[in-house]
Amino acid sequence: MARTILCRLEEIPAGTARRFDVDSHRLSLVRIDDDVYVINDECSHEDYSLSEGEVFTEEREIECWKHGSTFSLETGEPQSLPATQPVAVYTAGVDNGEVWVELR
Question: Which domains does the chain have, with CATH numbers?
Fold first, then answer.
């Protein structure tokens, strides 16, 4: 697996998400304090961008803005209906202020 640099950590305000398209991957990068999470940016219920939804920092979840399903940033599992299928999660981190993700 290759690491891909997405951006600098300072470019993403804490408690927010941002979409990145890398090759055939549609990714949502979420920052909570100095932790970063990368999940598939497509809601498993319908094709809506998760990075446009609200981030719940305490729960470490993101909400689909269209129908209200929430997903765990750690496992990708849906935490509420109508979504019933998980979204992919990716290994991510920060080195020297740069946010990276491992893509399959």
Answer: 2-103 (2.102.10.10)
